[in-house]
Amino acid sequence: MAMHSIQTVWRKNNIFDTEIDGHKITIDLAEEAGGNDEGPRPKRLLLIAAAGCTGLDVVEIVRKMRIDLKSFDIRIDAEMSEEHPKQYTSLKVIYEFEGDNLPKEKLERACKLSFDNYCGVLAMYKKAVPVTCEVVIKNS
Questions:
Q1: Among the residues of 1-140, which ranges form H helices?
Q2: Which PANTHER family did the record assign (predicted)?
Q3: Do residues 62 and 101 make contact, with C-beta atoms less than 8 angstroms apart?
Q4: At a CB cut-off of 8 Å and minimum separation 6, what does 83 contact?
Q5: Same domain for 76 and 116?
């Protein structure tokens, strides 16, 4: 079984640094929450991980389908609980494509393959909260 391991180091105040694959990530709180705003908040990094994971899948699938995209964005709308521990209670992944004469069925299939079969981050989320998706295609 493969294992991933990270080490996060407290720098000062509410600032923590982690090095992943040779890249430094700093997390912090907003100034109004007692931080220095030197990095993103931890929960939002979870959303970035989900968007990046599914996005990488979709790009690879679309490339194999020989679809030429002008742009591709992933937005995740996440509802959060009001009480502590504050956590996401649902997620909606919105895949947004732009291009000329894009094949809707193929793009929907690419997204569905990632959403249902390949994205490990979304698979973990689905064990904890409801996760839905939508595909939006804009003609350029």
A1: 42-64, 104-113, 120-126
A2: PROTEIN YHFA
A3: no
A4: none
A5: yes
What domain count does the chain have?
Answer: 2
8 Å CB contact between 90 and 130 = yes
How far apart CA 28 and CA 35 sit, in angstroms, is 6
- Does residue 18 sit in the same domain as residue 63? no
Q: Is the pLDDT of residue 140 over 90?
A: no
- 53-108 residue pLDDT tens: 999 999 999 999 999 999 999 999 999 999 999 999 999 999 999 998 999 999 99
116 lies in the same domain as 135:
yes
Q: Retrieve residue 104's tokens.
A: 């809707």
For 32-51, write each residue's pLDDT tens digit. Answer: 999 999 999 999 999 999 99
Question: Do 30 and 16 touch, CB atoms closer than 8 A?
Answer: no
Range list of β-strands (E), the chain:
8-12, 15-20, 23-27, 71-80, 88-99, 131-139
